């Protein structure tokens, strides 16, 4: 992953102290503290969307990556006492995602039907036998701003928000922008991070082994200067998440949250 950094916060003597109020981790190594070390590529072990998302009908409209992201937002907020008292217009949400055309699993039957015995994909055969097998909600479930939409609605987050659909960099941009929004007074609380589910999409990434996951942090105004948390940096951030496979927009958030958990 590239060693670039988020743009510096606007120079100002009036930046407010920011506290790290909560964190959520879902990755191939596990959920929460269990996911802080080790792991191999693949799905998040034991993840069931209904355990974190009460909206059963909504789950049917979410791809796997969206489910992980929405669950991570809820889990991170559950660690923050009294966040509901913050006015909705002062609640911010920043999310990173990877541009993708829906859930790979929803396309698998159709792609299989269009593949010849030789292993070669045949467009004519796909048109005859495969296209009708595509899940009717394939595209809707995979919209790259779904985490932002579902989570902001669920938690009445009416404040500043943004969604970056540029893969790995999107997740990191979200974390830094969340800190900046609170420090600069644009929000009193900000949930920020990234989510992706790329298991099954290895062919799209040239055969790279893929994983899935999500990580979110909650930034909040610190009551006293001493409780302030420094603006997040990727300097000296361990890159041991490479063993988890390609994680898309969840890569940097997962790496950063794992590092925080390991220091505790």
Describe this structure in words.
It is built from eight helices and six strands. By secondary structure, it is of the alpha/beta class. The two termini are 25 Å apart.
Task: Give the SSE layout.
Layout: E1 18-27, E2 30-31, H1 56-59, H2 64-77, E3 91-96, H3 104-113, H4 123-130, H5 138-141, H6 146-154, E4 161-164, H7 168-183, E5 189-197, E6 212-221, H8 251-263
Parallel strand pairs: 3-4, 3-5
Antiparallel strand pairs: 1-2, 1-6, 5-6
The percent range for strand residues is: 15-25%
**What is the overall silhouette?**
globular
Number of domains: 2
Specify the CATH architecture of the largest domain.
3-Layer(aba) Sandwich
The total strand number stands at 6
Describe the biggest sheet? 6 strands, mixed
List the total number of helices.
8
* CA radius of gyration: 19 Å
Poorly predicted segments: 1-8
What is the CATH C level class of the largest domain, in words? Answer: Alpha Beta
Provide mean pLDDT, rounded.
Answer: 89
Write a short abstract of this structure.
The chain is an alpha/beta fold and 264 residues long. Helices cover 30% and strands 16% of the residues.
Throw out a few tags for this protein.
single chain, 264 residues, alpha/beta, 2 domains, 16% strand
């Amino acid at each position: 992953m590239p060693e670039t950094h988020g743009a510096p916060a606007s120079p100002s003597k009036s930046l407010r102290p920011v506290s790290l109020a909560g964190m959520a981790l879902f990755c191939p190594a596990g959920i929460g503290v269990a996911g802080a070390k080790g792991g191999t590529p693949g799905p998040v072990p034991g993840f069931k969307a209904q355990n974190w998302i009460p909206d059963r009908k909504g789950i049917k409209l979410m791809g796997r990556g969206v489910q992980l992201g929405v669950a991570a937002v809820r889990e991170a907020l559950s660690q923050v006492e009294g966040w509901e008292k913050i006015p909705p217009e002062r609640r911010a949400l920043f999310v990173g995602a990877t541009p993708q055309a829906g859930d790979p699993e929803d396309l698998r039957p159709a792609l299989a039907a269009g593949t010849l015995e030789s292993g070669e994909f045949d467009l004519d055969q796909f048109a005859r036998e495969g296209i009708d097998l595509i899940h009717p909600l394939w595209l809707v479930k995979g919209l790259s701003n779904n985490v932002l939409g579902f989570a902001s609605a669920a938690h009445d987050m009416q404040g500043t928000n943004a969604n970056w659909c540029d893969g790995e960099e999107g997740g990191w941009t979200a974390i830094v922008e969340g800190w900046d929004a609170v420090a600069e007074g644009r929000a009193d609380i900000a949930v920020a991070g990234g989510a992706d589910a790329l298991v099954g999409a290895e062919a799209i990434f040239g055969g790279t082994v893929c994983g899935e996951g999500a990580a979110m942090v909650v930034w909040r105004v610190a009551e006293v200067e001493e409780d302030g948390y420094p603006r997040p940096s990727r300097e000296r951030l361990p890159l041991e998440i490479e063993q988890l496979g390609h994680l898309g927009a969840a890569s940097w958030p997962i790496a950063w949250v794992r590092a925080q958990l390991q220091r505790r």
